[in-house]
Structures are given as C-alpha cells and as structure tokens.
Amino acid sequence: MLTLADVLRWHSPAYMERHSVSMLPSHARALQAILGCRTPAMGGHLAECADCGNWHLVYHSCRHRACPQCGHNATTRWIDKQRELLLPVPYFHVVFTLPAELRRFVRSHQKALIAVLFRAAFESLAAICADPHFLGGEIGALAVLHTWTRTLEWHPHIHMLVPGGGLAPDGRTWLRPPRRKKPFLVPVRALAERFRGRFLALARAALPNVLFPEIPWRKRWVVFAKPVVQGPEKVLEYLGRYVHRTAIADKAIVACDDRTVTFRYRDSRTQASKTMRLAAHEFLRRFLQHVPPKGLHRVRSFGLLHSANRGKLRQLQLLLAAQGKDDAVFTERPSQTRMRKCPRCGSTAVRLVRRVSWKVCLEIARAVERAGTAEARAPPP
Q: Domain residue spans in the chain?
C-alpha cells in the first residue's frame, strides 16, 4: 500500500529544491519528520514477545501533527479526557466559516488571524446567548480548527461543541433554551451577522497596516448550528480526527508516478467516492498548506469549558446530576488505544527491553536485510 511517506520520498527532494527559498520552516520540519517516522533515522527500542520469545526492533514515531502514521493514541487520550468534561445536557454542533475572499488572506497571516477566528466565533455566540430572550447565561464551548476540504483545498473554519444551556448570573441555576418545535440554540442569521462584524473588527485591529480584500456587503457568511442527535461523543470522535491527524490518510493515496499523485476522496454533495489526480508538486503544496505554524493550536476551550473554570464545571456536573436532568446519557466506552503487537504471533504481550540509537537501528536493519528475515530469534549483541 502506498503511503504519504512514499510520495514524499519520491517527490519532496525536487519540491524542496524548487521552493527552498520560500518554504516555511514548519513545512520543512514536517517533511523531515514524516520521512523519518518509524525508520532507523528516529532510533527505536528492542522489544521481546513474552509468548513466543521473538525479539524485534520497534522504530520510534515522529509524533508530528502532519504525519498520518502518528496520532491514533494521542487522539484516543484526547477524546477520553474531553469525555470526562461533558455535561449531562443536550449539545449543539456550531460551525463558523469564512467567505472565499478571506481564505487566502487568512492563510498568509495565520499567526494573527487564526486566533482572531477563534475569538470572534466564541464571542459572537456568547454575546447572543447572554441575551435573556435566547438564554441569558454564561456558556462554554470546545472549539477545533479545521483547514482543509476533502480535495485538500484551504478552507479554514471552526467547529464548536456547545452545551445546550448556560449558567445563570447567580452561579447556581442552569438555564435551558426555550422549548420550541425545532430545538435551536440561537438564530443563525443573527449569529452570522455578529460573527462577520466581530471578525472584521478584531482582524483590522490585529493587522492595522494591512490592506484587506474587498467582500461584497450583501454576501452572507455561512454559520450553522444544529442539535447533536446522536450524542456529543459522536461529535468528539469527529473532532478528534482533526486534533492529532493530518489532511490526508495513507489509505486515501491510490497511485503515484514520476509526475502525478492520485488520491481518493468523498464528494461532500453526493457522498460518492471519487479520485483526483494532481501534479506531484501541486499535491505537496496542498498538503503542506495545512501544516500549522509552530505554536498555533488547533483546539481551544472557552467559557465554562476553559481550564480556568474546571472547579465551576465540576460543581455544575454534580448539580445537574443531583437534579436528575440527564437529558444526555453518556456510556463508558473502552479505550481504543492501539496496542503494540508481535510481528510473528500477533500477541500484545510485548515488552520494551532497551532503547537503541539510530546508528544501532541502522546496523540491525542492514543485518536483517542481509539475513533476509524481518525478525531476530535471539537478542542482538
């Protein structure tokens, strides 16, 4: 099976030579990390299987956010941690998007404008929810940045998981949205208008000497909010894909040759599986534009879900549980952490014995290649 690392080994040298002057340091680090991931260059550990006695070499992972081979266990831990912070109330999934005129502009000023995007989204929602006509309380939100489409185009938008309610000013009463035929948190048209004004105001304050692209005044900014029917855990699993994962998975890559890369994607309108063939350099450009600059966080918590309000959140969990307002039932799910397996017998009773350097890993890999086997029956010297 082709992997992203295979594509990079084939085409990244020419790409880096062509774009070495303009390439961002974060992009160069991503390429280096993915190419070295789970190879002798990263070093490793000698491991022993307790069932069959097989010894084998376990290469280290790069743990880079752009690497499709890494992030599974980190994602599982993140989902488990966020599950502990859920409230026993209905939840809403809210998405804030930017118009096409601003997307490339935001990409060119990511460090300043991504923070603005997060802040404008939550402040707009919190301001409307503070209105007694809709809710009249303090809310919380878990926000995740998503920058790619299914064809790897740049399309920054914010996903929010929001509890359906808020804390009253007295700090003891949980307020719920008014009962309606169709449940909704806030009117999305009003939310979109407020988001537009708040984003542009914060963005111009962050970049006072930069000329902004023109946006038609009548153009509607797309914002939507819908109740989470299947439960907030489903949304957590969906958001978890973008926390420690990259824009494309290895299994999506179909073919690669001297000039092109073909990958599989799902059409968002028809949900049909399709393939797209791109020039190799265009594929790398699309992929690398989703590697965030150093220090940019894709996940942020606001309001009641902010880390500074953990005590208040725990009290609220106990209060709602005591009141019996369990509109959302959360079931304990077993951890989906990926276990290390023995390559000979498939057992998970594998014990890491000692760490070895990249030089030793390279020597062992060469010895195994010369012996024509993928395992060692006895511990190497």
A: 87-247+291-322
